[in-house]
Amino acid sequence: MLEINKKEDIIIPFDQIGDDDWKIRTSQIIEAIADNWDDELTAPVAADEISELENKLGTTLPESLSIFYQTFGLANIGEELQAFEDIGWLKDTDATDPEHGVDFTAEEQAVLPYLITFSDYLGNGNMFCFHSETKEIYYFDHDEAPYIYKMFSTVDDYIKDCLIFGQSDLFGENATQEEADQWTEEIVGEMIGKHKIRKWRYFDGWE
């Protein structure tokens, strides 16, 4: 089983989904996360299920997300990938109701009609979405502005960073949770910038 005792033990699963050995490295992380939380591994999603979802949405999934589903299903990546019946247009959810305190800017209102949810951030009401046309990844933060924030250019980067963060719970006897958290935050911070981690993870470090 994967065990994190030093920063160098943390696996970078891929640069892009489809890279050589991406399945091997990703599987190692997903299996370790599932074992750590005593979860069952999820079955791959059939291509016809993906086609059915795309027909319902009226647009295609990001290609890399489709590949991930067909390889690992709705795996625990450290965050909760939505069940197919829950994937849908952000504008149609109760979360965007002004009665809930969300006051979108004109810029946010312009992009809102294009966003499709596919992942919950720890089930707290915040969600990750892909843009129906560009396939870029946006973060919907129901707590504080900016409420809609472009986080990643591709879904590959989102899944990769989730899998890195997920390894913080796999610390071994020679490391602590705090150390593992710091190592993963440093690695992802070098990739996407500290300001994005603060927005995404409610992280208040690096004073």
Automatic annotation (TrEMBL):
Q: Which residues form the Knr4/Smi1-like domain?
A: 44-161
Record InterPro entries:
Knr4/Smi1-like_dom, Knr4/Smi1-like_sf
Extract the SUPFAM superfamilies matched here: SMI1/KNR4-like (SSF160631)
Q: Tell me the protein's name.
A: Knr4/Smi1-like domain-containing protein
Coiled coil residues, start to end: none
Question: Gene3D superfamilies recorded for this chain?
Answer: SMI1/KNR4-like (3.40.1580.10)
Q: Name one Pfam family in it.
A: SMI1_KNR4
- What organism does this protein naturally occur in? Pedobacter cryoconitis
